[in-house]
Amino acid sequence: MTYTLEKVQVQIIDEIQQSLKRCMEQGLLDLPELPVIELETPREKQFGDFSTNIAMQLPKITKKAPRFIAETIVGQFDKSNTKVASVTIAGPGFINFTLEEDWIYGILQDVKHLGAGYGKTKLGAGKKANVEFISANPTGPMHMGNARGGAIGDGMSQVLSWAGYEVVKEFYINDAGNQIEKFGQSLEARYLQINGVEVEFPEDGYKGEDITIHMNEFTKKHKDKYVDYDSRERREVLIAYALEKNINKIKQDLKSYGIEYDVWFHESSLHEENAVLAVVEELTQRGHTYEKDGATWFKATEFGCDKDDVLIRNNDIPTYFAADIAYHVNKLRARKFDWAINVWGADHHGHVARVKAALDAIGLSGDQLDVILMQLVRLVRKGETARMSKRQGNMVTLSDLIEEVGRDAARFFFNLRAPESHFDFDLDLAVEQSNENPVFYVQYAHARICSILRQMEEDLSKVELDYTLLKEKEERELIRILAELPVEIDAAVEKMDPSKITRYAMDVASGFHTFYNACRVRTDDMPLMKARVELVRSVQRVLKNVTTILGIEAPERM
């Protein structure tokens, strides 16, 4: 039997719970129920492999001191059911666990046996998860915020899939509402101007060069055919033409970014199917709306929100908020997703609580919706804010960024920090071929391994494989890092933070480089050489799995 880190942790947690049960049965501790047990990895090696602070969480309930609780738990702990070698108590009541020497070698057996599946877990148990991200306004090109949202959303989709969820990646096309009206007015003004009609351009219209390009191309194809059309009909034709162009460009850019969606969901379909008005009507029937100033409002404050929100304006047009509720009802009720995850900009913070409240109000559960709020990123070159796009004025587009630094660097850098963190994207560092560049550092580790394995001339097929020969601290530390992958996958899901996998990739690369500088792979000791070659192969496999999750290449040569 092999022992992954996850199995070892489960064994320890189970035995702590059994210890608490025995304490309760013997009257040593009075607890109404078993508490949730969590393990942490101590920063200092002298405190063992794992630690729990459960004894510090129980004094109020048990009326006992933390140290007494820790000693009582340890006194009932049966090591024979685990891979624990020793249990100690530190400070006011931390319980530390040191594992047996041989547990770690089972990790290499798991990596070899599971191969491309190593790291996958059963956390999701086949539940359906919908991840909606980017959902860029289709009235123009994608920008930097979309680029970060793409890396986060695709990374989140991958870790969910690796954690055993059935994942659907979705792009929500905002092809209804005020922005489409403004888009149509902008297209119409440019079309008429190009065809010699003197009209003023809308003051709040879209002034990007892409509007002019679209209408020049449209005019080449259709001439002045639509000049005499009714304005509403003309705008519908122009919107349909330009939206198709923009959406195709979005799909093209995303493909070059390594992202392909399962579903492209049109907001307009909600209005066409009367789903938005139906949701408002249902909320009204449930008593959660009221009329004020000619508008229909949702009683969000009754669900703990800071303010109520408008569902239907006084001109009888539904708000974006109403459409958003209908969209999430479609996900959770009609399409029966267990979990909806959205990646939004941090400026949507107040909107999140109101959408979750509306789901509660309509008979679903707001807990089925989670939103990853991401901060913007500042592009810097030589320490100063960078401007890259001459075509788009101050806008930096996704295609500009990929052209400058490449797909891998863009995706890796956008996932270097937790989504809620601000950070500077260093354009110079992203293209630098040095260990200071984190994506180069990780990819170079994989390429270096491939080079090592290509140069191995010795025939080791008849040499017995004995992992226990790997006794050096650098070897054991590297194996320990490999053991963390399944745990990191689950942690990335639970914290909704795919940057954990990016940082893990850097840890694997660092552990490998440290090992390689300290331990010769090619040696006269053939059994030891075989064990080290297999360790190197395990690192190669894990790096390949991790880069797959991150959506970047694992090059064999650099």
Task: Compose a concise summary of this entry.
This protein has about 550 residues and is α/β, with parallel strands linked by helices. About 50% of the residues lie in helices and about 10% in strands. Among the domains are: about 5-100, Arginyl tRNA synthetase N-terminal domain (Gyrase A, domain 2, 2-Layer Sandwich), CATH 3.30.1360; about 180-245, no CATH class; about 435-550, Isoleucyl-tRNA Synthetase, Domain 1, CATH 1.10.730.10.
Low-confidence stretches: 389-393
The CATH first-level class of one domain comes to Mainly Alpha
- The CATH superfamily of one domain appears as Isoleucyl-tRNA Synthetase, Domain 1
Mean pLDDT: 94
* CATH topology-level fold name of one domain: Isoleucyl-tRNA Synthetase, Domain 1
- Can you give the helix content as a percent range? 40-55%
Q: Which second-level CATH architecture of one domain applies?
A: Orthogonal Bundle
Roughly what fraction of the amino acids lie in strands?
5-15%
Family: Belongs to the class-I aminoacyl-tRNA synthetase family.
Protein name: Arginine--tRNA ligase
Organism: Alkalibacter rhizosphaerae
Keywords: Aminoacyl-tRNA synthetase, ATP-binding, Cytoplasm, Ligase, Nucleotide-binding, Protein biosynthesis
How are the SSEs placed, and which strands pair?
Layout: H1 5-25, E1 50-52, H2 54-57, H3 59-62, H4 66-76, E2 84-90, E3 94-99, H5 105-114, E4 128-132, H6 144-162, E5 166-173, H7 178-194, H8 209-222, H9 231-256, E6 263-266, H10 267-272, H11 275-285, E7 289-292, E8 295-298, E9 309-312, H12 320-334, E10 339-345, H13 349-361, E11 369-374, E12 377-381, E13 384-385, H14 398-405, H15 407-414, E14 423-426, H16 427-430, H17 438-455, H18 473-483, H19 485-494, H20 499-518, H21 526-550
Parallel strand pairs: 4-5, 4-10, 5-6, 10-11, 12-14
Antiparallel strand pairs: 1-3, 2-3, 7-8, 8-9, 12-13
Helix pairs in contact: 1-4, 6-15, 6-19, 7-8, 7-9, 8-9, 11-12, 12-13, 14-15, 17-20, 17-21, 18-20, 18-21, 19-20, 20-21
Family: Belongs to the class-I aminoacyl-tRNA synthetase family.
Organism: Alkalibacter rhizosphaerae
Protein name: Arginine--tRNA ligase
